[in-house]
Design a protein that fits this description.
30% of the residues lie in helices and 24% in strands. By secondary structure, it is of the alpha/beta class. It starts with 5 loop residues before the first strand and ends with a strand.
Length: 455
């Protein structure tokens, strides 16, 4: 008689949980998974995918303007928010069905109910208790909003995808990648956007040149960027929502979007009751094999707050399944993982920032190029692209690569292989560039703009 109902039970059917479930089932494990919302998780349902679709939509206003410089007369464009949201919803529904099919085809049993940990081998799912030899927590993260007066009038990124109409005036609070992406989306679609951030430049944690260029470019595009500023309260008025800002200023808008960070989605999961070590912010503490402080319970993805990116969650879920059920230990190595911000202009980044490289490497050389993209010599648009290499002076390995500009994420995905593989600046230099492209700058920069750490 079987000791447990399943070899593995996964709480959370987002990207990391679904990948872990499928791979474990492929290794011969019996797998169950539960999800209280829609299968696909934050990324597919209310995150990366719908956001990227809205980013595409928001580019067309500039594309129509730029077309005139190339001899096109496109007439007066018209935009329909309901049409866009309808198209987005159809695509999300299609992807949701694909994820459901992936689980079914792999033989994973899906419970479309909330799951809670009881102990190291039992999960409460709805009104039943299920046993499993191993439990995987993959519940992701959720938006965090500060407790200020009137915060109930604000929305998070979750609700932004389902607004009935495009707001004329939007205040976006925050300076991270979600805030910057939505600022670009709403501005591009025609809203008047005010972005409020307590820091002195957006994208805290990114390389300082990335932050500088993106901040300047967002302002050029008409976003009213209020830096070193905070919202003290929000109240409903007859004309919309009024924000009381630090220093006594008032700002009236139609919609307030808070993008002030995310926290692990652990409320009501019973993790501490099951004996797991959980930090004050909700983060589940795990080792390099994603094992928690309880022997048979593991966790992957944003709930661990290691590197909160969808591909990282997928990587961690796959590595977990291979390690526990596939007979091959795969410790997770997060070093030199690429990332992107679909701001306008977008950002692609891999490796150390200049500041972190000084602290971790020591003596470094910095190569920097800022230029007007070729397209805008005819479009007339005032836009700056930036490309940057951080090089370990002693080994000459490229340890950081950062781009701001059109197609930056696409370019960095390819160059991330080179950085992850430890290629040197000399190997970059001996690579022939493709002309005319922006990316050729990365293999043609010969003289350092500056160096750090030399006597």
């Amino acid at each position: 008689m079987k000791k447990y109902d399943f070899d593995l039970f996964v709480i959370g059917a987002g990207s990391g949980g679904v990948r872990a479930a499928r791979i474990a089932a492929g290794h011969g494990a019996s797998v169950g998974i539960c999800e209280e919302s829609r299968v696909g998780g934050t990324c597919v349902i209310r995150g990366c995918v719908p956001k990227k679709l809205l980013v595409y939509a928001s580019h067309f206003a500039e594309d129509f303007e730029d077309a005139r410089g190339f001899g096109w007369d496109v007439g007066t464009p018209r935009f329909s928010w309901p049409d866009l949201i309808g198209a987005k919803d159809r695509e999300i529904n299609r992807l949701n069905q694909i994820y459901l099919g992936l689980l079914s085809d792999a033989g994973v049993r899906l419970y479309q109910e909330r799951g809670e940990c009881v102990d190291s081998h039992h999960i409460r799912v709805g009104d039943q208790t299920i046993s499993a030899e191993y439990i995987l927590i993959a519940t992701g993260g959720r938006p965090w909003l500060p407790e200020i007066p009137g915060i109930e009038h604000a929305i998070s990124s979750n609700e932004a995808f389902d607004l009935e109409e495009l707001p004329s005036r939007v205040a976006i609070v925050g300076g991270g990648f979600i805030a910057c992406e939505f600022a670009g989306i709403f501005s591009g679609l025609g809203s008047s956007v005010t972005q409020i951030y307590r820091g002195d430049a957006v994208l805290r944690g990114f390389d300082h040149d990335v932050r500088r260029v993106v901040t300047a470019e967002m302002i050029k595009k008409g976003i009213d960027l209020r830096l070193e500023m905070q919202v003290e309260s929000i109240r409903q008025t007859g004309n919309g929502l009024e924000l009381s800002l630090q220093g006594g200023e008032a700002l009236e808008v139609d919609q307030v979007l808070y993008a002030t960070g995310r926290v692990p989605n652990v409320r009501g999961l019973g993790l501490r009751d099951a004996g797991l070590e959980v930090r004050a912010d909700g983060r589940v503490v795990v080792d390099e094999l994603s094992q928690s402080s309880v022997e048979h319970i593991y966790a992957v993805g944003d709930v661990t707050s290691r590197v909160n990116l969808t591909p990282v969650a997928i990587y961690e879920g796959h590595a977990f399944a291979d390690s526990v059920f596939g007979g091959q230990l795969r410790p997770v190595n997060h070093e030199f993982g690429p990332s992107a911000v679909f701001s306008q202009p977008p950002v692609g980044s891999v490796g150390y920032s200049e500041e972190d490289a000084v602290n971790h490497i020591g003596v470094i050389d910095v190569y920097l190029s800022e230029f007007r993209p070729m397209k805008h010599t005819l479009s007339g648009r005032d836009e700056t692209a930036m490309m940057k290499l951080i090089v370990d002076h002693e080994s000459q390995k490229v340890v950081g690569l950062h781009i701001v500009g059109t197609d930056a994420p696409e370019i960095v995905q390819g160059f991330a292989v080179a950085v992850k593989s430890g290629l040197t600046k000399q190997q970059f230099d001996t690579t022939i560039g493709i002309h005319p492209t922006a990316a050729e700058e990365l293999v043609t920069m010969r003289n350092p703009a500056r160096s750090h750490g030399r006597d």
